[in-house]
Specification:
This protein has 16 helices and 22 strands. The protein is an alpha/beta fold. The strands form six sheets. The chain has a seven-stranded mixed sheet, with helices on both faces. Strands 7-6-5-8-9-21 form a six-stranded mixed sheet, with helices on both faces. A hairpin with a 6-residue loop joins strand 1 and strand 2.
């Protein structure tokens, strides 16, 4: 999948599969190590012109104007390019989400072009806070030392992307890094490489963005070539990226797996909750890190909620039948989903809708699946399923719901539904998760303004949301200036 492993045999060929038919379309064509290194070197050569002169306000302005113009042209091209959209459809087997990706990237670019200037400005000069004592300056109210500074972007940022949203999650970090003044080298998942060629045709000549085809060995080599690395994908692979980054002594920003809980309290609007949770758990066939993967419902309304959810889920069709649920993009993920469903059934879970992997046209599909009589002895309640599966568990109040929601190695996001905003926020404040939707589900897929940090094994490093999304690609430099006119430094003691 998105493994970060070195190739043990160069003659092993990774196939590129059609997710709708399961057929091999072509062999993967990984960029060679020499070519990857040459691409990294070429990007570094573009850095001075792209960044501008950070020590000069005029240079900063020229650098930003150049970046804003190139990014704006790129975003507009992505939004309207039909070949790119078609390649995404071929990569993933779904249409709606692929069109959404291109529009989301265009909006992402526009947002950073609008917000970046204020966030990239150097900090204002300020008086230093000096320690007291025998060596303190004679007039502490008028400090002679000032602190100034600037920000310096990492020269080359590496991005390793996943297969579930191949375009958006290749660029969600690349765009703010480019806006910050970095050059960027992207290695998307080997499962979804078709979009790379049409995307690169849209990159303006002066935009230092390169996207290369490759497998896990390519990702491993990339880490050794860059100054910072961003990874989106599974926990096992993210752990390998973290170790590789530590060996290379570069920062790593990791967005990894999730097992997002939804809590439905007794006073919640059950119809609204059922609709939101169904969407949150089945959009993109559940192949999203922020998908709702387990649901805890107050026992007094459990049966009513379960019936509502099952009825709504039963009416949602697969895309091969004209509905919104696309195929399982990665065949090995279908095996994971099947194993979780089999384990749940063996341990006593009741299936209300769906419940199995289906084959249509050679591809792998899973209908929206609603389970009850589940508990934390089951894989479907504890490990990331990454499919359209919603196990529903009855609980005896908010305390038990919070305890079960927090009983996880993951902590990416969550959702709370209650009779009032105050009640929902009180429960949300007790959850170990980075982004919590209140009276809705998976809002973090659309709302990128709120900074959040992952809890547990769901991630590491600065937030990809909010202002931190761009400032994490900057190193801060302080200039400590002594403006005293005294013959001796102020810190000399009188006894000397």
């Amino acid at each position: 999948m998105d493994g970060l492993v070195r190739r043990e045999r160069e003659d092993v060929v990774t196939p590129v599969l059609d997710p709708l038919t399961g057929r091999v379309e072509r062999p993967l064509a990984p960029v060679s190590p020499d070519r990857l290194a040459a691409t990294a070197a070429a990007l570094r050569a573009m850095a001075p012109a792209w960044t501008g002169a950070p020590a000069s306000p005029e240079g900063r302005a020229v650098g930003w104007e150049r970046r804003a113009a190139a990014l704006t042209r790129f975003g507009a091209a992505v939004a309207r390019d039909e070949e790119l959209a078609a390649a995404l459809v071929a990569d993933t087997g779904r249409v709606g989400e692929s069109l959404l990706e291109t529009r989301a990237v265009a909006a992402l670019v526009a947002r950073w072009v609008r917000q970046a200037p204020a966030l990239l400005a150097p900090p204002p000069e300020r008086p230093a806070s000096l320690p007291g004592g025998p060596g303190a300056p004679p007039h502490p109210a008028e400090p002679q030392v000032v602190v100034a500074g600037d920000v310096v972007p990492y020269e080359l940022v590496g991005v390793i992307g996943p297969w579930n949203f191949p375009l958006l999650l290749s660029l969600i970090d690349a765009v703010p890094a480019l806006a910050a003044g970095c050059t960027v080298l992207v290695k998307p998942s080997e499962v979804t490489p078709r979009f790379i060629e049409p995307l690169m045709r849209l990159v303006p000549e002066e935009l230092p963005l390169r996207v290369v085809e490759g497998d896990g060995a390519t990702g491993a080599a990339l880490v050794d070539l860059v100054d910072a690395v961003v990874f989106t994908g599974s926990v096992p692979t993210g752990s390998q990226v973290a170790r590789a980054a530590a060996r290379a002594f570069v920062p790593a920003f990791l967005e990894m797996g999730g097992k997002d809980p939804a809590i439905v309290l007794a006073g919640a609007d059950l119809d609204r909750a059922a609709s939101a949770i169904l969407w949150g758990g089945t959009a993109n066939a559940g192949q999203s890190c922020q998908s709702i993967e387990r649901v805890y419902v107050a026992r007094t309304v459990h049966e009513e909620f379960l019936a509502l959810l099952a009825r709504k889920a039963a009416g949602v069709r697969l895309t091969c039948e004209g509905g919104p649920i696309g195929p399982i993009i990665e065949p090995r993920q279908a095996d994971v989903i099947a194993a979780h469903l089999a384990d749940a059934a063996a341990r006593g879970a009741v299936t209300h809708t769906g419940g199995r992997i289906e084959r249509h046209g050679g591809g792998h599909w899973c209908r929206p699946t609603v389970l009850s009589e589940v508990d934390h002895s089951m894989l479907v309640m504890t490990e990331e399923t990454f499919g359209p599966v919603l196990p529903v568990m009855a609980v005896d109040g908010p305390g038990e719901a919070v305890a079960l929601a927090n009983d996880s190695v993951y902590g990416l996001s969550a959702a709370v539904f209650a009779g009032s905003e105050e009640e929902a926020l009180a429960v949300a404040a007790r959850l170990r998760a980075g982004a919590i939707s209140v009276n809705d589900a998976s809002l973090t897929a659309f709302v990128h303004d709120g900074e959040k940090d992952a809890f547990g094994r769901s991630g590491l490093g600065g937030s990809r949301m909010g202002a931190a999304s761009i400032t994490r690609f900057l190193r801060r430099r302080a200039f400590l200036v002594n403006r005293s006119t005294a013959a001796d430094p102020w810190w000399h003691t009188s006894e000397e």
